[in-house]
Amino acid sequence: MNIHNNIKSVFFAFIFFTITLNIHSQVTISVELRPRAEIWDGYRLLNDGSRDPEFFISQRSRLNFNYTNNLYSIGFSIQDVRIWGDENIYSSTGVYGNSASVDLHEAWIELNLCKHSKLKVGRQSLAYDNQRMIAYRNWSQHGMAYNAIIYKYKQNDLILDLGLSFNNQSSNVLFNEYPSVKQKTMNYLYFKKQFNSKFNASLLAMGSGYVKNDSSNIIYMRGTYGANLGYKTKNIELKGSGYYQNGKNSKGLDVSAYLFSFYGQYKLRKFLLGAGIDYLSGQDATKTDEDYQKKDHLFDILYGKRHIVNGEMDMFFNIPMGTAGGGLVDVFATIAYYPVKALKLNIDYHFFSLQNNVLEYAGPFPTYLEKALGDEIDFDFKWTIRPDISLAGGYSFIIPTTSLEIIQGINLGQNKFSSFGWMMLTVKPTIFTSKK
After folding, report:
1. What are phi and psi of 155, to 5 degrees?
2. Which of 131, 141, 212, 216 has its CA 20 to 30 A from that of 39?
3. Strand 328-340 vs strand 343-354: parallel, antiparallel, or unpaired?
4. 55: which strand partners?
């Protein structure tokens, strides 16, 4: 009888606790639908006349679930990403679907450890500062997410994050195989201080690793260390970053590389004027001594932003391939115009060049490529129709130099006009929010 009463007591105590907890909890369910039409006529690869323009429509469809109470928060997001017409189950008159098309975008829990500390565990999106090293890369319809454990400390104007991750292909007892092209581990320590309403500074130290080969347990670790400075007033914003890398690259070579970037913008009534430079070190082909050649001097942007940062044509989405290992210098300028609050018109100009010398001809008298790579212009607009609906689009073209043609294997006289156009509708309604 006493045991029965004890069980009832525990049960009612649990019900009371659950009801009390629910009073201080909130559930939010939201949806994102993002169809995008694109036309590629020299996007990523220069147009050499051998390919017809490619037109397609892709779509991201997401369902997001968030739950928050006094003790923890949960985030869960499932998505379907497809090209219109890519279904593999179909008939001559219609489509039925895909055998596998739904994916997990995010699934995490964030525990409130104490007043200033949290622990976030699971698959999650990450972004820091100007996103040069760790970014929420949202241009891809799939988006970018990371498997990580993150300890977060925040008090007043001080932020400290410690992130750890370790990935495996399976839980196989006999072998621990892992593809050498996939990130094995990514760990970081981030510190940011907001000194006043205008000035902030941050430090980032990262260790990222790839296995030696698919069946090896040896991990080659690359270290990345840097600082970011930010200054912002009502009309002026300045951002500067500098990073250095050492350790080993994915092939086991020693690394010594660096990056620095600067961006400034000025707001003038309905206009926004900006300019900056990205400077990524590369390999110097004129230095033939063994000690130099045994080191990798090409900076790896790791998990940083690619699209938009170095031109929307994405010619340098893959820096090693796009520059033949010579590194990249991107000098850019931007003008944005807001005719009304809900509409933004933007034009960006990029001048690309190699940071270092790239071999053109390796004969008895070697020659090297001219460093200039080309000029790119990007036109964009974004119309916020209402808070949950927006329409965006753009058109870009690049005028390449002979050096970029040689890097991409385009024969003299074969290069044609290269351009890229897109139009995207984004609808992000919150379909349910519970009362706290």
Report:
1. -145, 120
2. 131
3. antiparallel
4. 39
The closest alpha carbon to 256, from 292, 288, 208, belongs to 292
* Strand partners of residue 410: none
Whether 265 and 273 have beta carbons less than 8 Å apart is answered as: yes
pLDDT 10s digit of each residue in the chain, 436 long? 454 455 455 445 544 544 455 557 899 999 999 999 999 999 999 999 888 999 999 999 999 999 999 999 999 999 999 999 888 776 555 555 675 678 899 999 999 999 899 999 999 999 999 898 999 889 999 888 999 999 999 999 999 999 999 988 877 666 677 888 888 899 999 999 999 999 999 999 999 999 988 777 889 999 999 999 999 999 999 999 999 999 999 899 999 999 999 999 999 999 999 999 999 999 999 998 988 988 999 999 999 998 889 999 999 999 999 999 999 999 999 999 999 999 999 999 999 999 999 999 888 889 999 999 999 999 999 999 999 999 999 999 999 999 999 999 998 888 899 999 999 999 999 999 987 6
Got the DSSP string for 359-409? EEE-SSS-EE--SEEEEEEEEEEEEEEETTEEEEEEEEEEEE-HHHHHHTT
* Cα distance between residue 332 and residue 319, in whole Å: 17
Helix (H, G, I), strand (E, B) or coil at 8: helix
